Amino acid sequence: MGYIVNLTVILDDLFKTTSGNLLANDAHSAIVRHVDSGRRERIHREIRSFVTETFARFTVPQRDLVLERTIELIGRYCVRTSGDV
Question: Where are the domains of the chain?
Fold first, then answer.
């Protein structure tokens, strides 16, 4: 879950900052920005908390709560600006 959210957030940053003209160094820069921003740690902390709270009940939820949370985190960390299409 964490890898999916982090990868999606990094790819979102790349598409926003490179306008489709991606260079090899751009990917590295996007990863460094992601880590330096603290988003990586916050995402993983939120996931750990979610998993602990959700699965501590020892019941299997009928809805796919993990997928719902993954989508929520991607939405939160890939915030659209007014200039985004």
Answer: 2-77
